[in-house]
Amino acid sequence: MNYADKYEEYRNHFEDDLQKRCAGMVFTPDILTQSMRYSLLSGGKRVRPVLYMAALEAFGKPYVGEETFAFAIECIHTYSLIHDDLPAMDNDDFRRGRPSNHKAFGEANAILAGDALLSLAFDLLLQEAGKSAAHLRAAQALSKAAGAEGMVAGQSLDLLCTGGGGGERELAEIYRDKTGRLIAAPLRMAAILAGNYEREAEAFGLELGALFQITDDLLDATGSSTALGKTVGKDAQEDKLTAVRVYGLQGARRRADASAHTCLDILHTMSGADTGFLAELVRSVRCRDR
Fold first, then answer.
1. Which of 34, 120, 161, 209 gets the highest tally of CB atoms within 10 A of its CB?
2. Phi, psi at 179, each rounded to 5°
3. Within 130-242, where are the H helices?
4. Which CATH number characterizes residue 48's domain?
5. Residues 124-146, buried b or exposed e (16+ Cβ, 10 A)?
6. Owning domain of residue 180
7. Do the beta carbons of residue 184 and residue 211 sit within 8 Å?
8. Cβ neighbours of residue 65 closer than 8 Å, sequence gap 6 or more
9. How far is Cα 156 from Cα 138, in angstroms, rounded to an integer?
């Protein structure tokens, strides 16, 4: 099976499970359920759940039966997107080609939808943590990646450096925490459940997060709103700290190439793991146009 077909296998498996879980979500008032479902079911590449399932297989463990962690990962990612689009954060009116949650349901309801998705994720993690010591450690890995030692810290520094602040060191910290931690978490979780490759999975995930964010910076500077499904050019307009601001366009492209090579080098150290799909994913991220 080629890379594209395998990606669709993972993504479709996750989407089927997601549809069932969203159908079972019934909260009062109904607008809360609607707003949560709106963002969860808005499509997207589902990179983090795909990484989780692909890593499980790469490390020798079936992904069927381990879907709850994938759902928890996507709940946290979706909450972060809802809050990231808010007027107090990135103030973006579009996400994945349609109005952002706060544009569809109002700012207050969007905040509450994000809060609810984060709380739901931790409820799911607590459920799974009782299965085994490995499940407990995997749950802890995600909780740390999402909070004040991970994504939230990166978001905070990103805001602090908006408007002309920061430099190369701060940029690396933003990449590591804001993006890298939640890319590395599903890989590390899979490694913990499989009982091998945890250190390599963490290193690979953090570097993949950096690659993903550099290409995101490049696309904001050179891509189109139609392809990306969100507003472009906002980084320069708001003077965000990005690879393009620090290194220039050509320098950022060189950084992306170097990051992709580092990702592949790390995969080569995972002796015994079937990392072919992950290697193709690295190449896909480097060449993506959306």
1. 209
2. -110, -45
3. 133-146, 151-161, 168-174, 181-194, 198-222, 225-228, 234-238
4. 1.10.600.10
5. bbeebbeeeeebbebbebbbebb
6. 3-287
7. no
8. none
9. 25
Given pLDDT bands bounded at 50, 70 and 90, which one contains residue 228? low
Rounded CA-CA distance 55/229 in Å is: 28
Q: Is the pLDDT of residue 1 over 90?
A: no
CA torsion 242-267-16-141 (nearest 10°) is -70
How would you class 27 by CB atoms within 10 Å of its CB: exposed for 0-12, middle for 13-18, buried for 19 or more? Answer: middle
Buried-state track 90-101, b at ≥16 Cβ within 10 A, e below 16: bebeebeeeebb
Tell me which residue has tokens 């499980």.
56
Q: Indicate whether 141 pLDDT > 90.
A: yes
- Closest among 37, 20, 19, 21 to 105, alpha carbons compared: 37
pLDDT at 235: 86
Question: What pLDDT digit, counting tens, does each position of 192-206 carry?
Answer: 999 999 999 999 999
Helices (H), the chain: 3-23, 30-40, 47-58, 67-84, 101-105, 107-129, 133-146, 151-161, 168-174, 181-194, 198-222, 225-228, 234-238, 243-268, 276-287
Judge contact between 43 and 14, C-beta under 8 A: no
Query: Quick check: 105 and 113 in contact, CB under 8 A?
Result: yes
Provide the token pair at 169: 């060191």
Number of folded domains that form the chain: 1
Q: Are 183 and 150 in contact (CB under 8 A)?
A: no
